[in-house]
């Protein structure tokens, strides 16, 4: 593989501003979810993924795959959310293992309110300031990056309710069982479902 030329000062400035904008936007989205709905980005990601699943239920392994999380992280997250009454586990595995997960009534209420509020936050912070041409350019550039980093990533579904999590781990483009990976500004892979 040929080595690329060094970045120019303008390219470094672009990169730094893009990374700063992502960090600030993700932080504001997280604070808004915590303040307005009492849930974390991780909880929002789990709730939205289950909300979009048939019957609001998935197998734990499907949830983990959809979010791109390892089993340990999923297990700890589900335990905390089950204690809060946002979801419940069902016995569906061998020897009575609880391999299914679903939203409770409280979980459904929280996610429905959070989706609406989250959409308002995304619109206010990121979408309203853009002209149609700017939005189209960013959409096309983002698709190119996604295709380069994860060619198996599905195209977004226009009009999908729930909206993107804006860095919180849920994306309308990813159905349960499909993985989409992004890289953070340090080059670490993060997965979103």
UniProtKB/TrEMBL annotation:
SUPFAM superfamilies: Winged helix' DNA-binding domain. Residues 160-169 have a biased composition (Gly residues). Pfam families: MarR_2 (PF12802). The lineage of its organism: Bacteria, Bacillati, Actinomycetota, Actinomycetes, Micromonosporales. Residues 148-193 are annotated as: Disordered. Gene3D superfamilies: Winged helix-like DNA-binding domain superfamily/Winged helix DNA-binding domain (1.10.10.10). This is MarR family transcriptional regulator. Residues 177-193 have a biased composition (Basic residues). It comes from Actinocatenispora thailandica. GO terms for molecular function: DNA-binding transcription factor activity. GO terms for biological process: response to stress. Residues 1-147 form the HTH marR-type domain.
